[in-house]
Design a protein that fits this description.
Elements: E1 2-5, H1 7-19, E2 26-29, H2 38-54, H3 57-67, H4 72-75, H5 77-88, H6 92-103, H7 109-112, E3 120-125, H8 133-143, E4 148-152, H9 160-184, E5 191-195
Parallel strand pairs: 1-2, 2-3, 3-4, 4-5
């Protein structure tokens, strides 16, 4: 089972292009299939230049609000601060390289259209800014019509361990579907699920 989270989704797409026969199921978490639009490509170049000139901290406050749900700063400030420190600690060369790789990635929409026999789960959070549920539904219905969309609802008061088990249970369900598919070649049904 191949799992790609955020940038890892782009890596997963490239793995599928090269080694499709090794994948029994696919999980795409908070990622997207389309390539960058021209304005986004320019923005990535500007961010890379800013990081080189002023360091990682210069772009943290630009990026942080888009990486966390609205209300996170008030509800879970300790988590927000941890993410902020992680981002500030990233090496500038790594930031610039990642931005360039995302800028130049290949559109994967056509690739997804060839994976109808592959059990696929698309995971998004209901308040995701960069990969909102509407976008996930759109590319699922357009490019992977037999995939499942797994929507995680935001409950800041909920214990993280409960959210972790919810995600693990959904992964286990997909693994079972992959095993079943391998035995009987049955395709998964479209499904929208949510965690309360």
């Amino acid at each position: 089972v191949l799992v790609g989270l955020s940038m890892g989704g782009y890596v997963a797409f490239e793995f599928l292009r090269r080694h499709r026969e090794r994948v029994r199921a696919l999980v795409l978490c908070d990622t997207r299939a389309d390539a960058d639009a021209p304005d986004v490509r320019r923005a990535r170049d500007q961010q890379a230049s800013l990081a080189r000139e002023q360091g990682a901290g210069a772009i943290v406050e630009q990026m942080l609000p888009r990486m966390l749900a609205a209300g996170a700063a008030q509800a879970i400030p300790h988590v927000v601060e941890r993410v902020r420190e992680m981002m500030r600690g990233a090496p500038v060369a790594g930031i610039a390289g990642a931005l360039a790789a995302m800028r130049d990635r290949v559109d994967a929409t056509a690739l997804l259209a060839t994976l109808e026999d592959l059990p696929t789960m698309i995971v998004v959070g209901e308040l995701d800014v960069m990969t909102p549920p509407e976008m996930a539904r759109s590319f699922s219905s357009r490019a992977a019509p037999r995939s499942r969309i797994s929507l995680f609802r935001t409950r800041f008061s909920r214990r993280r361990v409960e959210r972790r088990y919810s995600f693990v249970n959904r992964m286990a369900s997909l693994g079972q579907a992959a095993a079943h598919s391998g035995q009987k070649r049955q395709r998964p049904r479209s499904m929208l699920s949510g965690a309360a």
